[in-house]
Amino acid sequence: LKGERKGKKVGAPRFKSRKDARQAIRFTANARWKITGRGRLSLPKIGEIKVKWSRVLPVTPSSVTVIKDAAGRYFASFVIDTDPGTDQTRWDEPEPDAAIGIDLGLTHFAVLSDGTKIDSPRFLRRAEKKLKKAQRELSRKQKGSRNRAKARLKVARAHAKVADARKEFHHQLSTKLIRENQAVAVEDLAVYGLARTRLARSVHDAGWSQFVALLDYKAQRYGRTFVKV
């Protein structure tokens, strides 16, 4: 609305855009949803849904949130009440003096203090040709058409595939380092500044921030020491 009120100009209303544009719906215990004996998820007014489980739920969940991402994929996120320390029994405790330092880079994703070099997978670089082709097809479609919607979904799925592969790599490496060491140290990189240089594409492709965040929370969960140098 535009106009004047009490001698003051009233501009157009401003709304904060949501960072997370995914569609989601939450079902609590009162909604009478359940996990059936066949390992399917039964939701009210929807029925039974086949689920590909990423892990076994340790206890009965109190609620479930069904999420649809930009790539048109659906995920079920469960809320459970469990002891944070229960997972520690799965791992053998490392030696008390077991420690590792991590030097992050672009030529190699990481060089460890024991001399181990971990190659950078460069997921975005490897998928660049396919992504460019999908983006060109999208730009040729008429705005508002069904074909443009299909092309947009194709681009989103291609980017999601790259992001998923990168996250899986970060998870596997961070779990290995936290599992085998009592203390982990990593350099405190100025990722924001590096992302504004000519190396921006390679910096984003490496995903250092996500990797360091995974190290941090896993160290806290499993009682390890984690420091940024």
Describe this structure in words.
The protein is 34% helix and 24% strand. By secondary structure, the protein is an alpha+beta fold. The protein folds into two domains: 20-79, no CATH class; 99-228, no CATH class. A five-stranded mixed beta sheet has the order 11-10-9-12-13, with helices on one face. A three-stranded antiparallel beta sheet has the order 3-7-8, with no helix packed on it. A three-stranded antiparallel beta sheet has the order 4-5-6, with no helix packed on it. The longest helix has 35 residues, at 146-180. The N and C termini lie far apart (52 Å).
What is the gist of this entry?
The chain folds into 2 domains: 20-79, no CATH class; 99-228, no CATH class.
Keywords:
disordered N terminus; 13 strands; five-stranded mixed β-sheet; 229 residues; three-stranded antiparallel β-sheet
Kindly state the number of beta strands.
Answer: 13
Tally of domains: 2
- In round numbers, the mean pLDDT is 82
Separation, N- and C-terminal Cα atoms:
52 Å
Helix and strand sequence: EEEEEEEEEEEHHHEHHHE
Radius of gyration: 23 Å
Structural class determined from secondary elements: alpha+beta
- What strand order characterises the main sheet? 11-10-9-12-13
Beta-strand residue fraction: 15-25%
Contiguous low-pLDDT stretches (5 residues minimum) are 1-5
Helix fraction by DSSP (H/I, runs of at least 4) = 25-40%
The coarse silhouette is: flat
Instruction: Please outline the major beta sheet.
Output: 5 strands, mixed
* Number of helical elements: 6
